[in-house]
Amino acid sequence: MPLPAGFSGPVYAYQTFHVRLGALPEFCEVVSALMKASKNDPGLMKMDLHRELPWAQSLSNDEFSLFLMVQEWSNPLDLEKHVTSAHAVRFGATLP
């Protein structure tokens, strides 16, 4: 969906990760490296990672744990630059 003419932000990105419990340490290392490297990206206003806690309708189970990353960027162009940055590409290539 194209953005309206003159739109300047902010924009939000939400990513979900279903992580095998055996890969949890590696996932935490890889996502920590991404968050640390992204900290100074132009336009980044917020990047948070949340892990689902047990509840009645939980998606996480004995094999997988659900994570949600929430990003807020000042404008669409900065988000686009982040997605193609070396650290974001490395993150995508090294996910367990």
Number of helices: 3
Class by alpha and beta content: alpha+beta
Q: Provide the helix percentage.
A: 25-40%
Shape: globular
Quote the average pLDDT.
92
Write the element-wise H/E pattern from the N-terminal end onward. Answer: EHEEHH
Rg over CA atoms, rounded to whole Å, is: 15 Å
Low-confidence sequence ranges: none
Distance between the termini: 30 Å
Beta-strand segment tally: 3
Strand count, sense and barrel status of the largest sheet are: 3 strands, antiparallel
**Largest sheet, order of strands side by side?**
1-3-2
Give the DSSP E fraction (strand runs of 2 or more residues). Answer: 25-35%
Care to describe what's here?
The chain starts with 10 loop residues before the first strand and ends with a helix. It has a 3-stranded antiparallel sheet with strand order 1-3-2. Helix 1 (24-38) packs antiparallel against helix 3 (86-94). The longest helix is centred in the first third of the chain and has 15 residues, at 24-38. The chain has 96 residues and is of the alpha+beta class. It contains 3 helices and 3 strands; from the N terminus they run E-H-E-E-H-H. 33% of the residues lie in helices and 29% in strands. The relative contact order is 0.29. It is globular, with a radius of gyration of 15 Å.
